[in-house]
Amino acid sequence: TGTLPAISGASLTGIGGRRNLVKNGGFDVWQRGTSFSNVSGKNYIADRWWCTPNSGAHTQTRQASGLDGFDYCLRMQRTAGQTAGGVVYLLNEFESIDSSRHRGKKLTFSFYARKGANFSHASSQITSNLISGTGTNQSLSAGLTGGANLISLTNTLTTSWQRFTHTTSSVVASNVNQICIQFTTAHAGTAGANDYYELAGVQLEVGTEATDFEHRSYGEELALCQRYFEAISGGLGMGIVKSSTAADCAFQPKVTKRVAPTISFSGTLYANDGSAQQTASLASGSLITVDGFVVLISFSSLNVGRACTFYTANYEHFLLVDAEL
């Protein structure tokens, strides 16, 4: 045996894989749809991203980015003719198990952004914030325990894509359990046809320099997002009628969830035992775990002991499984 020769000019340090803390930073995954309008409160749009337009009419849509390396971007737009102002928030939050491992390290936050021709925020700016907290698995919608800004800077947009990079001035504190990204804007005047900004390639990584955006495969990015939310598609589930007004239907999600999720159905739910179709609904008493669930369905009258099918009118998303922060 021998020793490997030294390689002149080589470095034993390099850019490792899985650098980007942001899930769906490339805006590839949109399980809930690709266009949203007039939402209020905390509403998820692209997977892992939620927004709170506080006033007026707004839309949030997936767009072709036209930016090399990125198929899509997120467009945050105020509807033409609107005069209402107010701050619009856009956030991506990380659970504690992903946040706490970055204690004692500096972080660099980078993203691509551009504006529409009628973007109405003062000086064509958006504010980018990196926020920490000391609580466990909290959401900024309810406030973070010990909340503090690690980064809070304005970014002046043009109608062309620019990459913005910001680094924390100090290392992440030893008691930080929560990190989240927040973008804010405040519109003014009357909205034109292109009163929007767009984001692409959002990345948060350890170190003091922004590296190239880390592209993960779509399948891996989808699975990372499905830990928090899964839209079970296909429009059809199978169950057994256990009484004249109730049936059990078992489901196995593709990915183990963050916590035991809440379950809902998209569209009008129907049950059919082969003899009749009836409108059905989710009933209390379902057995739900992070790994799977038996959903209790109620209806008017079906035949005990028969197999039955469950489906929605549009056959797109049958079951919505939510384990978000």
Describe this protein's structure.
- There is one protein chain.
- The chain has helices at residues 96-99, 218-226; strands spanning 35-37, 43-44, 49-53, 58-67, 70-78, 87-94, 107-115, 125-133, 148-156, 162-167, 178-186, 196-206, 229-233, 237-243, 246-251, 262-265, 269-272, 277-279, 281-282, 287-288, 293-298, 307-312, 317-322.
- Strands 14, 15, 17, 18, 19, 20, 21 and 22 form an 8-stranded antiparallel sheet that branches.
- It contains 2 helices and 23 strands.
- By secondary structure, it is mainly beta.
The helix fraction, in percent, is: under 10%
Q: Mind describing the biggest β-sheet?
A: 8 strands, antiparallel
Strand content: 35-45%
Reading the helices and strands in chain order gives EEEEEEHEEEEEEHEEEEEEEEEEE
State the separation between the terminal residues, measured CA to CA.
53 Å
Mean pLDDT: 92
Residue windows where pLDDT falls under 50 for at least 5 positions: 1-14
Shape label = globular
Helices and strands: which structural class? Answer: mainly beta
Number of strands: 23
Q: Can you count the helices?
A: 2
Radius of gyration: 23 Å
Highlighted features:
325 residues; mainly beta; 8-stranded antiparallel beta sheet; 2 helices; 4% helix; globular; disordered N terminus
Short recap of the structure:
With 325 residues, the chain is mainly β.
Write the layout of secondary structure elements.
Elements: E1 35-37, E2 43-44, E3 49-53, E4 58-67, E5 70-78, E6 87-94, H1 96-99, E7 107-115, E8 125-133, E9 148-156, E10 162-167, E11 178-186, E12 196-206, H2 218-226, E13 229-233, E14 237-243, E15 246-251, E16 262-265, E17 269-272, E18 277-279, E19 281-282, E20 287-288, E21 293-298, E22 307-312, E23 317-322
Antiparallel strand pairs: 1-4, 2-3, 3-6, 4-5, 5-12, 6-11, 7-10, 7-12, 8-9, 8-11, 13-23, 14-15, 14-22, 15-21, 16-23, 17-18, 17-22, 19-21, 20-21
